[in-house]
Write a sequence for this structure.
């Protein structure tokens, strides 16, 4: 449905990552009709969670080392600084809405695992099989080829540490979905949803549900959300840092540069790719792919546009070394026959 541009005067803006393609038209439609930032983001992310083409968000996401799909999601309202985040949730198809309900209905900000599932059940959230055939087949092929026979025999009570070190994102550059927007009342919000990295250690949380690392919104200044190696943005508190740098007077461009500079201090651990998406409260934005690949892009919608537009992310290399994401190519197992 093409957005109608009822609010031409308002400074509306949406930025989402490459995986947000199917959801951003819905968010644009709702924002242009006067919906709140949070409502518009939640609706857009729900579409992505259902999108069969998107294999790292919601239904169809990649499983962890044990073959279970664990989902993470978050929302943040930049006008109240309330957040809702859920992590390592199994069996529920719309984690973003569970995160939203957490924000609305609990005095807490973050639930994980069994507690998150209990809350989801209590609010009647939609359940469903998250592990789709393509992911099940890929996991089985990996298990059959990579797991030592003695560990296969003991499964799932086998040591996972050595296998975890080999597990990398099977689809580099196609990952989480992150959405940022400002509505007609200049409320700014952020939302994220992901299955995290494929073949992660069970219980691993990336940055997507960690407010301040994978997302942050403050209507006084702007918002930021990240995709890629959450292990990096957790260490540098990237999303909060970008908004704080804007509070300190930097433009959105400089604030993102400064957050990229923070990453240059990272030593050891997982150094890979991260894409930083940011907006300010005047309708400006910047998206930078740290160690990114040339095809990295994001989606932008402004009221002057007929439809959301894909834009290339600016690439900044912070290291001469090839990112550590190739110990063995998970693509061997995830490629369709
Ligand atoms: N940032 C996500 C995480 O660390 C994954 C991704 O965006 O690729 O779980």
């Amino acid at each position: 449905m093409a957005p109608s541009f009822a609010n031409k005067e308002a400074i509306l803006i949406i930025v989402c990552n490459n995986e947000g393609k199917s959801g951003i038209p819905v968010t644009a439609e709702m924002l242009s009709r006067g919906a709140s930032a949070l409502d518009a983001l939640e609706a857009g992310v729900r579409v992505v969670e259902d999108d069969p083409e998107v294999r790292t968000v919601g239904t169809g996401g990649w499983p962890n080392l044990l073959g279970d799909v664990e989902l993470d999601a978050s929302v943040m309202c930049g006008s109240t600084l309330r957040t809702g985040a859920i992590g390592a949730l199994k069996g529920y198809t719309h984690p973003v809405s569970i995160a939203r309900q957490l924000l609305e209905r609990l005095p807490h900000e973050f639930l994980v695992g069994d507690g998150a599932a209990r809350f989801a059940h209590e609010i009647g959230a939609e359940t469903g099989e998250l592990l789709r055939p393509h992911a099940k087949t890929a996991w089985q092929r990996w298990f059959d080829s990579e797991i030592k026979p003695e560990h296969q025999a003991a499964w799932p009570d086998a040591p996972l540490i050595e296998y975890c070190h080999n597990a990398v994102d099977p689809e580099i550059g196609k990952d989480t979905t992150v959405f940022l927007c400002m509505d007609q009342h200049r409320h700014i919000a952020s939302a994220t949803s992901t299955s995290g990295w494929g073949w992660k250690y069970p219980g691993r949380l990336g940055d997507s549900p960690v407010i301040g690392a994978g997302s942050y919104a403050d209507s006084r200044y702007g918002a930021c959300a990240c995709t890629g190696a959450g292990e990096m943005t957790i260490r540098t508190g990237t999303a909060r840092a970008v908004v704080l740098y804007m509070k300190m007077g930097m433009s959105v461009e400089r604030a993102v540069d400064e957050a990229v500079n923070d990453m240059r201090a990272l030593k050891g651990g997982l150094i890979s790719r991260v894409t930083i998406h940011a907006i300010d409260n005047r309708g400006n934005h910047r998206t930078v792919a740290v160690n990114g690949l040339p095809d990295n892009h994001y989606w932008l919608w402004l009221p002057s546009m007929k439809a959301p537009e894909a834009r290339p992310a600016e690439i900044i290399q912070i290291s001469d070394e090839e990112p550590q994401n190739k110990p063995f190519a998970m693509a061997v197992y995830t490629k369709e026959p």
Observations:
- The CA atoms of residues 236 and 263 lie 7 Å apart.
- The longest strand covers residues 82-89.
- The chain has one domain: 13-321.
- The first helix runs from residue 24 to 32.
